[in-house]
Write a structure and sequence with these properties.
The chain is of the alpha/beta class. It has helices spanning about 10-20, 55-65, 65-70, 85-90, 100-110, 135-140, 145-155, 170-180, 200-205, 220-225, 235-240, 250-255, 260-275, 280-290, 300-305, 335-350, 360-365, 370-380, 405-410, and strands spanning about 1-5, 45-50, 75-80, 95-100, 120-125, 130-135, 160-165, 190-195, 210-215, 230-235, 245-250, 310, 315-320, 385, 390-395, 400. The protein is built from 19 helices and 16 strands.
C-alpha cells in the first residue's frame, strides 16, 4: 500500500501553473484544489439526492462543512422519498448524482432495475452498517436467529412470512437473500418479499405488514428503541467490510462533466475522511443528520451504532469491530472491481439476469477508478490499494476475490 503519488513534482506543477496563468492549484497550497482555469468544474452547482439513512453522511457533510466550495462547486442536496424516486430522478437528469444503492447502479446498467442506462460509480460511500430486523412476534415464538426462523417457516405454508427490502436489486435484497439462503430458506419460494422505502420500515412492521426486513440505519436501531423488533444479524456479519452505498451518476454526465465529477468525488471523499477522523466528528455528524432536513430522528437513535456501540434487542451489547466506516485510510472508498462483480454474481444467482454477463467488462465500465484516482490525488494523502480486486470471506465460509465469477455464481445450493 503506498501513498497516492503526484505524477509531477511540486516545482513542476508550480511552473506549469505559472505557464497557464495559475490554473494548477496544489492541495495544501490553496483551498481551491483543481478549481481554476482549464480544470474548473463545468457545473458549479451539483444536485445530489439522498435517502434519510446514516450512510448519507459523506454527501450531507460535504455540503454542511463546505468541502464542496473547496473544490469549486456548491452541492444542492435533495432528500428523496424512495430508492425508486432516486432512480427516476437520476436517470432523467433531474439529479446530477446521488447517494445510491450499489446494486441499483448495476441493475440499471443491465436493464433489470428499470430502463437501461449506462451508469457510473464514482466512489464507495461506506462499508458495513446495515442489518436484518425480525419482529417481536417472532421473538415471542422463540425465533431469534436464522436456524430458529427456518423451523418456524417450515412449520407453516410457503409464503406465510413476509420480509421487506428496499429495492429489487438493492444491497438489502442481496443481504436478505444471502442470509436466508445460508439457513436453507429459499427467498423466492419459502417466504414472500416486498419492497418498502427505508423510512417506512418501522411503521410497516409495527402494524404487522412484515415479519422481518433488511435496511440501513437508523431503522434497525429504531425498531429496538420502539420495542417492535430486534437485530437478528448485521450485514457486516454476512460480509465483513462490504461495500454499501456509492456515489452514483450516469455515465453520460461524467463524459460531459469530467472536472465536475472529479470535484464532486473529491469533496465527498474529503468529507468521508473528516467523519472517520474522530468520534467527536462522528458525534457532530450525528447531531446534523438527526435534524428535520436530513433523517429527522433522535440523536440517541443514530449515535450508538454510528460509534460502533451495538445492542441487538435480545440483551446482547458489543463494540462492533466492523461498524459503519466512511474512509478507513481510503480503503472504504476505492471502487474495487471485485465489489461490483459480486453484485453481478448475485443478480445471476437469483435469476435477475438469465445468462452470465461479462463480469469484468461491465464492472470496469461502471466503476470509474480513473475519476476516483484523480479525486484522491486532489484531496491528497489518500492511500490507494495495490490491487483493483480484494478478497472477502462470507458468513458461509465462501471466499470471494473476483476470480471465476461465473463459477462462483453457479456454486450456491439455493439459486434460481
Amino acid at each position: 500500500m503506498s501513498k497516492t503519488p503526484f505524477s509531477l513534482s511540486r516545482r513542476q506543477l508550480l511552473l506549469a501553473g505559472a505557464a497557464v496563468g495559475g490554473s494548477y492549484l496544489l492541495p495544501g497550497l490553496h483551498h481551491a484544489a483543481w478549481a481554476a482555469g482549464s480544470d474548473a468544474p463545468e457545473k458549479t452547482t451539483v444536485r445530489v439526492g439522498f435517502i434519510p439513512l446514516t450512510d448519507c453522511a459523506p454527501v450531507v457533510m460535504a455540503s454542511l462543512k463546505g468541502f464542496d466550495k473547496k473544490y469549486g462547486i456548491t452541492l444542492q442536496v435533495s432528500k428523496e422519498a424512495s430508492w425508486a424516486a432516486v432512480r427516476d430522478k437520476l436517470t432523467s437528469g433531474e439529479l446530477d448524482a446521488a447517494h445510491v444503492l450499489y446494486g441499483m447502479l448495476y441493475g440499471l446498467q443491465l436493464g433489470v432495475a428499470g430502463p437501461q442506462h449506462d451508469m457510473a460509480n464514482l466512489m464507495t460511500l461506506n462499508n458495513n452498517g446495515q442489518a436484518i430486523t425480525l419482529s417481536n412476534q417472532l421473538k415471542a415464538q422463540n425465533v431469534t436467529d436464522a436456524a430458529s426462523l427456518k423451523k418456524a417457516i417450515d412449520a407453516k405454508a410457503k409464503g406465510s412470512y413476509t420480509f421487506a427490502h428496499t429495492f429489487p436489486t438493492s444491497t438489502h435484497a442481496m443481504w436478505l437473500y444471502y442470509w436466508l439462503a445460508n439457513a436453507g430458506i429459499d427467498p423466492f419460494e419459502d417466504v414472500r418479499t416486498v419492497v418498502v422505502p427505508p423510512p417506512q420500515m418501522v411503521m410497516n412492521m409495527k402494524i404487522g405488514n412484515m415479519s422481518g426486513y433488511c435496511v440501513g440505519e437508523p431503522w434497525n436501531q429504531r425498531a429496538i428503541s420502539d420495542n417492535i423488533g430486534f437485530t437478528a444479524v448485521t450485514s457486516q456479519q454476512i460480509w465483513p467490510d462490504h461495500p454499501e452505498k456509492v456515489l452514483g451518476t450516469r455515465a453520460q454526465w461524467v463524459t460531459e462533466n469530467p472536472n465536475t465529477a472529479r470535484a464532486l468525488t473529491a469533496a465527498v471523499l474529503e468529507a468521508a475522511r473528516w467523519i472517520d477522523a474522530s468520534d467527536d466528528n462522528r458525534r457532530e455528524t450525528v447531531k446534523a443528520l438527526a435534524g428535520r432536513a436530513w433523517i429527522n430522528t433522535k440523536v440517541e437513535t443514530l449515535e450508538g451504532r454510528m460509534l460502533g456501540h451495538y445492542e441487538n434487542g435480545l440483551g446482547q451489547t458489543w463494540q462492533d469491530a466492523h461498524a459503519m466506516r466512511f474512509f478507513h485510510d481510503g480503503s472504504v472508498n476505492f471502487p474495487y472491481l471485485s465489489d461490483g462483480m459480486w453484485f453481478l454474481t448475485q443478480m445471476k444467482r437469483w435469476g435477475l439476469v438469465k445468462t452470465d454477463p461479462d463480469y469484468l467488462a461491465v464492472t470496469r465500465q461502471i466503476n470509474r477508478i480513473d475519476i476516483y484516482k484523480q479525486a484522491a490525488s486532489a484531496v491528497g494523502n489518500v492511500t490507494l490499494p495495490a490491487s483493483e480486486m480484494r478478497s472477502s470471506t462470507f458468513i458461509d465460509g465462501k471466499v470471494w476475490d473476483g476470480t471465476d465469477p461465473a463459477a462462483y455464481a453457479a456454486s450456491f445450493a439455493i439459486k434460481r
